[in-house]
């Protein structure tokens, strides 16, 4: 256990050291002058490098999203007739293909299937892995456009989406993913064009082991906060995560870019005290959530106390190679960043430990959110904090010298309603649908938690799941896909519209709320907990809280 806490300490130290450096690097990449390679590449692809306004930027994002969904559905449904299918897998049903396509294009990577048992190498590589890069780069590009809108003045331009997308893929995601993939290969993660391999187990029984280009897909799924695993059991599967070092690096890569985006934002607005306060606040959230969840995982399991066991910690569902503490670390990080990858079964965590990772998503996965999506989701709460502080003090709310008016407040409210309306409305529709309850493995309070977790994961663009929820049903595939689209664009579009409007405003001088220090950090934290958390308190009482009380009763 001491080794686990040392690993957690090293994890936090590396995050504090590397995030500012990577954030500065990303700022340099996105704001450097367009070179001849980019002009030639984009021109030959039918695009230009001219700066775009909000309409052109949004049209490009939507067009790429629709095209990605259609192409991926064709690959998944038609894999029976396509090459690269040596194990002769059948094509997915239309509803499962739609769910999977929306999932990967929206950077959610919810999986209602088991990858190695249902998808051909072509589908995994050309279909899913490509979208892992593109969907993460789209989130980064949208965040950069928001940064420019907030930082610039007297302009309606937000940059060029195709330039931002190209830079995000070629100069940030691709090189780091290649390095990580090589390290994972050195640890024993497969990277081969073969689809399977016959092996002889220690017992002498021959078995078929599914392999493929696992290392390259694991690298980008973690780095881009995608989360979709090559194997159905994700990073708890030994071939996807074989060693302590691979476990540490995979878990760390989940949070590296989302945390670094805060410092990238600081370079745009040139207010480093403000972004340091944001980073410290989010890191404090992470530490509190982590310590609480680890505490719940290493405490005595009340259901095992009467059995006379020496070790009664919550080992059920935990990968024994890593232990309860490191499984809790991964669970907190993956729900704090909208990644969704796992190295243990969240459904088998302690009751309150499972509630912590669920609550992490219900708050919007702000800490530190997905690549790009986290920081512009956090900006919604920042604007709300400044607006509430303005109401309390009688001041006109300003943010970084820009007045927050009725237009910003309107779209801010729209973004705030995405999580509560999306999660509660869609889960209620699914609950009322005839036959939908057959997806539940557990019933009662734990079944409610599984159900709520699934729809929270979809709308929160997370992708992780409580293992007992069998979602491969037409009604769940469709509603979960709708939830993913709502979660992806329900916050992205309002924030882009807010940023575009703020870009046209001049900066004003006057007294504004201090944006750095403990006062602002505490006020922001209070708004996140009160506004984000109270919306879901009743349903949490019906699920994990009720289950906990019944366990101790």
Query: What is the strand arrangement across the widest sheet?
Result: 1-2
The Rg value, from CA coordinates, equals 23 Å
Q: Mind describing the biggest β-sheet?
A: 2 strands, antiparallel
Order of helices and strands: HHHHHHHEEHHHHHHEEHHHHHH
Strand content range: under 5%
Mean model confidence by pLDDT: 87
> Quick one: overall form?
globular
Number of domains: 2
Counting H and I runs of at least 4 residues, what is the number of helices? 19
Q: In percent, how helical is the residue content? A: 55-70%
What structural class do you assign from the helix and strand content? mainly alpha
Number of strands: 4
GO molecular function: P-type potassium transmembrane transporter activity; potassium ion binding
Protein name: Potassium-transporting ATPase potassium-binding subunit
Transmembrane segments: 6-27, 60-82, 126-147, 168-189, 245-266, 278-298, 368-391, 411-431, 478-499, 519-542
Membrane topology: Multi-pass membrane protein
